[in-house]
UniProtKB/TrEMBL annotation, chains A, B:
It holds the Pfam family PurS. GO terms for molecular function: ATP binding; phosphoribosylformylglycinamidine synthase activity. It is an enzyme of class 6 (ligase). This is Phosphoribosylformylglycinamidine synthase subunit PurS. Coiled coil: none annotated. It catalyses: N(2)-formyl-N(1)-(5-phospho-beta-D-ribosyl)glycinamide + L-glutamine + ATP + H2O = 2-formamido-N(1)-(5-O-phospho-beta-D-ribosyl)acetamidine + L-glutamate + ADP + phosphate + H(+). Part of the FGAM synthase complex composed of 1 PurL, 1 PurQ and 2 PurS subunits. The lineage of its organism: Bacteria, Bacillati, Actinomycetota, Actinomycetes, Streptosporangiales.
Amino acid sequence: MARVVVDVMLKPEILDPQGQAIVRKLPQLGFEGVAAVRQGKRFEVELDGPADEAALEQVRKIAETLLANTVIEDFEVRVL
Amino acid sequence: MARVVVDVMLKPEILDPQGQAIVRKLPQLGFEGVAAVRQGKRFEVELDGPADEAALEQVRKIAETLLANTVIEDFEVRVL
């Protein structure tokens, strides 16, 4: 069983209100020195077989179809 | 400016209904060979200064306080 990670983040040009809310809260909690926070999604995909090129290509298709909204999000696929 | 990633995932023993919903949907979309999917959160934290040990320790504290619910979630911090 191979495990593949799909990281989904908002495209840089897209506003990230959740990340901004976190950054605004940090000084009130005594945390300094954080310029920005971006929030996204992380998927761990467990495959029946090996993480060969065909399997990775399928995970990319799954990410495009189901895990990411490719209009506003970018995703990266990597073997864990 | 250094960038640190905080990956937050449900603890293994915690049920992941979102991940299960994705796995159930995959065969209907023509995708085979996926045993399980776990969904979590990914944060990119941009620091004003370098990602030295003090900065990483602070990011761990931020993760414990604000980014993860440590009762049901584990998190990992790594420099990007």
